[in-house]
Amino acid sequence: MILEVDNIHTYYGESHALQGVSLTLQEGETVCLLGRNGAGKSTTLRSIVGLTPPRSGRVVFRGKDIAGQPAYKIARQGVGLVPEDRRIFPGLSVRENLEVARYQRPGEAPSWSIERIFDEYPMLAELADQDGATLSGGQQQMLAVARSLMSEPRLLLLDEPNEGLAPVIVKQIGALIDALSATTTILFTDQSVHFALKHARRAYILEKGMIVHEASSQELLADTDTQQRYLSV
Ligand code: ATP
């Protein structure tokens, strides 16, 4: 198992956002975390990476409890987050956005480089010298994912990668997730079932800060009752 989130409780001030969330990921799996607006999807990802540390519970990554560690230390151990708002650095070119994210774990050969990113995503190579802030939403999403690859993630967390993107771009993001799935463990969030189940093998559903359902994509696709109860369909 690469990740075990065990009964985490996360607060914003007095507000009890996650009320005992547990989930697991096997190495190499692609899993989706589903739920409506405000269900706690972002907070779950932020709790895993240490941006909103859980007040109790465990986050076990590769056998070690990382809950409570500072976010930069968690990132260096190989947990990458692509946040919902993408956070492309304005005033930096596409190439510079990638360069600043470069991190090499001591004693390990890097698997990603700018050259490899440009080889695999020629669209980014074409935009290499352009200010990141001038990119379209879909281009920014590709750049945000590519940027997180530069820090050599062993586990990639994608927060609503399709948010606000046109259907044709959503297809490209789906293809990107499929391609990365071959080599990386991925947990991504989404509000609707169709994209999620096409690209993930398994899904958890969050509602009001609790996991209310877990199923394989095939099961959930057939289960319209559960979809209607907990998801935007
Ligand atoms: P969305 O699709 O809107 O991002 P989500 O499922 O990711 O939804 P979260 O953003 O994790 O949900 O929010 C979970 C709960 O925590 C919601 O009730 C939300 O209002 C609350 N919340 C989120 N961020 C904050 C914050 N910075 N301060 C206070 N409450 C917050």
Give an account of the 3D structure.
This protein has 233 residues and is α/β, with parallel strands linked by helices. It has a single domain (3-230), classed as Rossmann fold (3-Layer(aba) Sandwich), CATH 3.40.50. Helix content is 35%, strand content 26%. The chain is built from 10 helices and 10 strands. The chain has helices at residues 41-49, 71-76, 94-99, 114-120, 122-126, 137-149, 167-181, 193-199, 217-222, 224-230, and strands at residues 3-12, 15-25, 30-34, 56-61, 64-65, 79-82, 155-158, 185-190, 202-207, 210-216. The strands form 2 sheets. It has a 6-stranded mixed beta sheet with strand order 6-7-8-3-9-10, sandwiched between helices. Strands 2-1-4-5 form a 4-stranded antiparallel beta sheet, with helices on one face. A hairpin with a 2-residue loop joins strand 1 (3-12) and strand 2 (15-25). The longest helix is centred in the C-terminal third of the chain and has 15 residues, at 167-181. It is globular and about 45 Å long. The two termini are 31 Å apart. The model has no long low-confidence stretch (mean pLDDT 94). Bound molecules: adenosine-5'-triphosphate. The site of adenosine-5'-triphosphate (ATP) has 12 residues, from strand 2 and helix 1.
Low-confidence stretches: none
CATH hierarchy class name: Alpha Beta
Q: What name goes with the CATH superfamily?
A: P-loop containing nucleotide triphosphate hydrolases
* Portion of residues within helices: 25-40%
Task: Give the averaged pLDDT, no decimals.
Answer: 94
Q: Trace the largest sheet across and list its strands.
A: 6-7-8-3-9-10
Order of helices and strands: EEEHEEHEHHHHEHEHEEHH
